Amino acid sequence: MSPAAPSPSTAVRLAQGTAILLSSVAAGTSLSLSFFLVPRLLESPTPLMLKQWIRTYARGKRAVPLASLAAAASYLYLGLGNRYLHPHLLTLGQARAYLAAAALTLGIVPYTKLFMAGTNGRLLKLEESAGLAAASLEGKAADAADAAAEAEVEAQRERSAKGLVDWWGVLNLGRAGLLLAGSVCGLAATI
């Protein structure tokens, strides 16, 4: 005997739980990066700060968009699929709220490309150039003039890197806001 197909209400409940959980976790992750991680990074020496930011960036750029995509797919199922497959399960207002949740949750992708890509790129280049500068200093003995010039360049790089990481934390709040707004819309449609 084959198992019975899940009832629409079971699928709906699963989609609701998945969407709200994933969008809320992604929002919390983004908020944590800005409120907790960035201030700790700014306390680190610049080369270490850049390495830590790069590692966090590499992990975050895989995890948060994936969670957002899964949440948005669930919100779309709830807003579109459910509206047409099971119109008795939700109102037009609920369907619109789920669609708004999907749009807000997916909105982190264009937001990142429009507002954060430049900062991300500059931080990636700074980390790369910091590694190259350290390697070149190890290979040569510098006289006093070279040392002073290199110290000034390094001081500028540190100010730039710290400022960019701080600015990244501010920009990241926009993504967190989109995800949080999506979670609120999804929750409002569910309740």
TrEMBL record:
The protein's superkingdom reads: Eukaryota
User: Which keywords accompany this UniProt record?
Assistant: Membrane, Transmembrane, Transmembrane helix
Q: Which residue spans traverse the membrane? A: 20-42, 63-85, 97-116
Q: Where in the cell is it found?
A: Membrane
Question: Per its UniProt record, what InterPro entries does this chain match?
Answer: Anthrone_oxy
The record gives the membrane topology as: Multi-pass membrane protein
What's this protein's family per the entry? Belongs to the anthrone oxygenase family.
Name of this chain's protein: DUF1772-domain-containing protein
